[in-house]
Amino acid sequence: MTATDSAKRRDLIYKYFPLAKTKEIEKIEEFLDQSFTKFGDSPPYDRRDFERALMLEQLQFASLSDYDFKIEDLKTEVMGDAAIATFVLQVTGMIVDDYSFRGTAIDNKARATVVLHKDKKDQWKMVHQHLSELGG
Predict the structure, then answer these.
(1) Long-range contacts of 69-77 (CB under 8 A, 24+ apart)
(2) Assigned CATH for 3-133
(3) Domain ranges in the chain?
(4) CB 37 within 8 Å of CB 51
(5) b vs e for 94-117, b when ≥16 Cβ sit within 10 Å of the residue's Cβ?
(6) Residues 133, 108: contact at Cβ < 8 Å?
(7) Could you say which of 14, 36, 38, 64 has the lowest number of CB atoms within 10 Å?
(8) How far apart are alpha carbons 84 and 114 in whole angstroms?
(9) Which residue(s) pair with 129 in the sheet?
C-alpha cells in the first residue's frame, strides 16, 4: 500500500463524520459499500443492513445540532484490499426532536471499528462500522 492509499483511508474516516455538521446527508452513501452493515452505540442495538443503516444514519445526522467530533488514536491495519480502522470517537452536540421541539444534549465517547474495502475504482469504502460507548 502506498502513502496515497494511507491518506485515502484516513480521509474517508475524517470526511465522513463532518457530514453531520454540514448536513450533507445525501453524501453518506458515497462512503459506504453496498454490503455495508453497522452496530451502533444507540438504539436500536441491532445489526443494520445497508438500507436500514443508511436511513438511520441520515436521520441521526440531520437531527444533530451544535455537533462536533474528535477522533483519537486512529490506527489502520491493511490486509490486501481490506483494512480495519480503530479509533476513539468523541461526539458532542444536541439531538433535536423536530416534532416536540425538544433537544437532548449528547457527549459520547465510543470505541470505533470500521472495516474498509478498496473497490474496483481504487476507492476505499466502509463495509462495516461498530461503535461501543465507553462507560464513564
Answers:
(1) 69/17, 69/18, 69/20, 69/21, 71/13, 71/14, 71/17, 74/10, 74/13, 76/6, 76/9, 76/10, 76/116
(2) 3.10.450.50
(3) 3-133
(4) no
(5) eebeeeeeebeeeebbbebebbbb
(6) yes
(7) 14
(8) 6
(9) 38, 114
The C-alpha cell at 122 is 481504487
- Nearest of 15, 4, 46 to residue 125 by alpha carbon: 15
Give residue-wise pLDDT tens across range 42-97.
777 889 999 999 999 999 899 898 999 999 999 999 999 999 999 999 999 998 87
Q: Please give the full DSSP string across 41-95, using - where no structure is assigned.
A: SSS--SEE-HHHHHHHHHHHHHHEEEEEEEEEEEEEEEETTEEEEEEEEEEEEEE
Calculate the alpha carbon distances from 32 to 59, 68, 76, 77, 114 in Å. Answer: 16, 21, 17, 19, 11
